[in-house]
Design brief:
Distance between the termini: 26 Å
Number of helices: 5
Radius of gyration: 19 Å
Order of helices and strands: HHHHH
Oligomer: single chain
């Protein structure tokens, strides 16, 4: 295994995991979130399924975070054409995971997982509104990082194709 194999492996693993997490996030937003957060506080207090998406995100998100961190570190050893895109992808992935753990998971714990136990109707509504408001920014960061990873990956392919101006020079 040569020196460029590990960074490329992290790039592939990041792109695959980012695609899975993005798809899961879209499903969560379109299917799961409207069920528990459609009309707070009643929809939250009547929710009986807890954090049902935790089974997926409990596995997918940590892997995504590890691959994002690995990519952010490994970007240093990537070809120049890929480096900034890979670094952008990795850093956005790390920020997304940290932001999710620090901000979004506590909101979900207080609302969806516990059906708002111990909170007033105003507190539940406020938390759900915060979740909805900032979720779009998290999506932009998540999907933007995935697209940056795809761009870096596309530069890998074009760098190896005949006649490209990639790693081996113009053909």
């Amino acid at each position: 295994m040569n020196r460029s194999t590990v960074p490329q492996l992290f790039l592939w693993l990041f792109v695959i995991s980012a695609g899975l997490v993005s798809g899961g996030s879209i499903f969560e937003r379109l299917v799961v979130t409207p069920l528990w957060a459609a009309s707070p506080p009643e929809s939250v207090t009547q929710w009986q399924l807890g954090g049902i998406q935790g089974a997926f995100f409990g596995v997918a998100s940590p892997l995504y975070g590890v691959f994002a961190l690995g990519l952010a570190i490994a970007a240093r050893w990537m070809p120049r054409r890929q480096r900034s895109w890979a670094l952008m992808a990795g850093v956005s992935g790390v920020v997304t995971v940290v932001w999710t753990a620090a901000y979004f998971l506590p909101i979900l714990q207080k609302t969806q997982v516990t059906a708002g136990a111990g909170l007033s109707g105003e507190e539940i509504t406020s938390l759900v509104n915060q979740f909805h408001t900032w979720q779009w920014s998290r999506w932009a960061l998540l999907i933007g990082g995935w697209l940056a990873g795809l761009r870096a990956l596309s530069l890998t392919v074009s760098a190896r194709s005949p006649g490209s101006d990639g790693l081996r020079g113009a053909g």
